[in-house]
């Protein structure tokens, strides 16, 4: 991912507002940035200390759980490790259901902790084959598999997996493995019902649907998971979710010094989410995603552009991965960057063997602080780029998107 | 202009970034806001004091003049009064060439100072008729007209007048009247050559092409104008441009306490303009305006939407005024506001007798800190609104705009 | 006031927080700066428009008046001119009561408008001699004097004049002249009761007790003053207070484009003032001023440092002017600037004939967003500077100040 | 550390600037906050990616090392765990030299990772007894002790330990244990020479001498330490310093998504440090600490106030712990908080058995973005509080401090 690899020539920034339309970090609301622009607060008493119970409650409302949340100063990779550290001992076996790069990544984190990691790989353009999962669990008559790990939305492929259905498979087999979900790219964007869907452990980060700069991550867990943790002989102090989730002193929430400024940003972001209403947040993401799809499907009619996930029911509402004849994808990204100040996401882990790394893929982020004029600006910028670079594409894309935003389709 | 009049129901703000696409105040760059977010500086020595000569020079470069500039803590109306106060004594006659509301407004300011104001009114959809001006000046054999006042771009009608041609008329008649231009809506957007075009006095504000919040305004003047001022018996202390333009102490630049934070914002904005290059700034505005026109002309093909200025050569590159069957214009503005967080400009002074105040007009700002994805977002938002409200309009607007931004047309 | 004159060698800023302890602009609260760090708002409807009636009411509460206020985008000099423009016609006579530079300055503004200006000069270290004023008014049997102009606190001398007593003099003579007060350096710091004291016109600015960056100024007036304005044949449009004070449309409040960002800053500052309570704000300024005086009076015991105003009852609670053997004052200012990041105010208009401009004077601002640790930091910085420069001074200054802040004295 | 325990009644904030004078988080420079107030940047290419090599180099310059640094999104506790995770396997033995709460805390982190932790406890008011350390190492003929862990400055006791002398002890015994130093409260404040002093591993955080909000922490290590890590069978992926310190791709520096906004803040803070010069930064802290000591030693002359560390040579230059007859310490903290907006640090882990938790202790932070007027403000505020509460104390404290800042002593 070096600059050279991405074929970009360094240029001074384009005039006008920049628009970072990558699948995370997402666009940060002004109000969140303003909330973080403040002197260091007291960390022993006062406003920040008093704010914590409400923050915890409002985080849980986003995740739709009545259970527990542990906050970490870390990125999503840290939350991956934190979650695993609380439920796995070295030598424990886990089953990873991979539908893109991030499933594999989480699995590697488990390997790093000494777990035996078994991966079912469902490719880079499809979802989890529940029959395969069912078969594997059935074969595990000794219940050696301690956890089944799945990514709700894999940011690299933009597939959205059906986590509720996964729980049904576990239930059908009466398998005691914990169901662990990575919602880093989906929480605050996609419908996710932690308790109703029977998810035992869920991890997410601050920088996507939660609209806060990277630097905090969260592990949600229920009582089943907590019991597992209690039976572990040792959990590292920093990752131990016990004191964090059941803090009685302020410093325990964060295992030491609090991420003071992120907490203020998070407070503001949660206010925005709950003021809009989490159900409405999901609806908004659905509409905007459909607008993106309508445009992309129109472009698909001519030329080489293709949505990575063909089936609408399997597509994320927060990110869209696209293929475009190499090196057009990179050329397009570069053109909109240099001419419009619009940054599109690079392809991640999507290249077939022999292909140049990612010049045939790109991704659109439409998560968090987004609305109709932003999406039309992103799509309009792509249309301008396709036109400027004379890359073949079907007509009518923008009007199709506008119709969706206008309420049709 | 009360809320009731504009038919808007108060609603909580739409999610996502808001976009203020009105013809001023324009979108303020993050860098400008950041530059203004600072403790109060010393006003007697140090950085701010040392910054002034460069600021003056860089302002003049935007106006393409080697002559003088006086800065005022005021809005554009203040600059209007300031400019007039330095060249008119009560009883002096001026000729106002009105092509929309703002020409009339400037004339009223002259009346308020005791001048005899004569208005040639060229309507709300056209430009100055140079023959009429020529005839009027020819008739003024006694040279009673002390100044000819014209608006470069009238924000209400979005007409762009030919200031250079106006100078030619004065020259042809060898008329000594000062040529005064209002560039409030054009400076930093449209080509303007103060010295080459022979403009004697020019006024502008901070909040449009200069991309700084409202609160500063500027009067540029040349030596001819300065001679007129020197012959006046009295100029009010606050408006007197002499000490401001020829300041030897810091406080003289601003006739008292300096607008400290605006100066930092202005410094940053001028840096942005000159880093891009003023010629390139003009080219960018031209391209984006053509994209707007391409979309509007496509919409015009069906239904009632009409560009207020038919002739492309007379259209502003910074603002576009449109007609849309009342009350569709207001409905459209309200829809994009409430659903997309996109604010379009209301019509100003455009209603025919008997029409409801402005429900049949709206305006688009495309001035200052704008680029291709923003314009596509604004146009895409309008397309979505037209679709949502089932307002008839021609097809292909967005793709036509995208092609222009992509380099065609 | 050039850099050379102030004997300062340019240096990189001292580490740590800077502290601008000059008598305006004053220290701007973080909350005010944050409120101003926002995108440009809509100026036709919405939050900003809706905010105005409350803003007007809260401004009047600070001035203790039930009458009218006109807001101006200008500095204090602009407010001076605005106030005079609404009550004077050319040729009208005014009586200026000068107790320092700013009284003279306001008088010059009246001269600039064509008024006949008569100055009673009470020097640079004392207050108004009411007997002289009485005598002059008595002599004006024809009531040619249309207005009596006085500065509440003259920032240059730090004298605080008794405005209520001035009204008594006018009343005793039954003189119809308007009583006009300049509260630029006192409003929001010193007790000021516009209605109770019978002040007809009062001017102030945003950048001192109101804690907002320079760029707005205010003219308060009562019905008597309004009647005078109504009888004037002509008031310039920009300065006319009528439409501003009785606005029915948003743009009328500001005579054109609103100072959008200052309005948000002002809203926040007024919230802070009224949350603390205006009476408590005055008490706080009184206590802090007494702490400053306690220190200065201790320093006076040895060496050349002298408070410019000897009588405590005549001293401002917002600014303190001091004498210190030239060039020690400048050396002290330079030392605390370069070594501590503490900026003290220069002397203004205080030098006796033959003295170097201001190297024997300096001023301390203690207005607006100040508290006990700030004042102790300012005084402690001066003590350090006196010590470093081996400038003679009496002992016990800091402990005397601390005792006042601690509640004694 | 609940609000109830600290005896504080919740009150609205005191007017004026707040001053957080606790030993971390420290006062954050405006410039750092401004640098963090920005849209999310691209994390795949561009400015942020290009900034990393310089950032790494400038971090190493602060630590005076030519070796390696790994950055973590975490607080200091995370850095503790990270450092230990790279050099310890479960069962390894470490020797903790405790001089206050934080030495014990680091040891607990090692316990949490499965290490055998041996603590030499030197109390809460003194430094490490090198003879004891020498004896213990001598006894370890089998070299079972893999690491010696010491805190440079223990924030709870404010003792400053001699890390160079500790290396001499190890060297004298030719003991191969790694020397690990916690510089969380000292880096960027106290002279620290990682390479010259032979420190193998050093940890620090962003929120004290580095003047950035909490949320990043750093582990510096040399080649000896790296060899230890290479021999470990397994290091968790998140804590593994290898990829972070030898990153070839941007995401590797941070083990996933970068802490984008903290990186900009850190860039600015490092610029400030190196512009001042790290040696000068240390000198400034030394001077300011001596000023604090001068005041405290004067106060000690009467009443119960006592510096926790008697020996000047053992005192930190960044934090000062004080005893004051319970509950005066808490009363004093509360008084300056409520009346002056000045926040002093609570005592941490200092109470003797049977004493109320911390009402007899408090701490002063004087680290990072501090200067002479701030220190005088803090000390002046304390003097005012002592006076208000009629707490006995010796005279002359403030003048003594001012003399130090003025260059004497």
Automatic annotation (TrEMBL), chains A, B, C, D:
Lineage, uppermost ranks: Bacteria, Pseudomonadati, Pseudomonadota, Alphaproteobacteria, Rhodobacterales
InterPro entries (alphabetical): Aminotrans_V_dom (IPR000192), Aminotrans_V_PyrdxlP_BS (IPR020578), PyrdxlP-dep_Trfase (IPR015424), PyrdxlP-dep_Trfase_major (IPR015421), PyrdxlP-dep_Trfase_small (IPR015422), SP_NH2Trfase/AEP_transaminase (IPR024169)
Family classification: Belongs to the class-V pyridoxal-phosphate-dependent aminotransferase family.
PANTHER family xrefs: ALANINE--GLYOXYLATE AMINOTRANSFERASE (PTHR21152:SF40), AMINOTRANSFERASE CLASS V (PTHR21152)
Record keyword Transcription regulation present: no
Membrane-spanning parts: none
Domain Aminotransferase class V: 70-347
Co-factor(s): pyridoxal 5'-phosphate
Protein's organism: Sulfitobacter delicatus
Source taxon at top rank: Bacteria
Protein name as catalogued: Alanine-glyoxylate transaminase / serine-glyoxylate transaminase / serine-pyruvate transaminase
GO annotation terms (biological process): glycine biosynthetic process, by transamination of glyoxylate
Molecular function via GO: alanine-glyoxylate transaminase activity; L-serine-pyruvate transaminase activity
Keywords: Pyridoxal phosphate, Pyruvate
Binding positions for substrate per the UniProt entry: 363
Modified residues (N6-(pyridoxal phosphate)lysine): 208
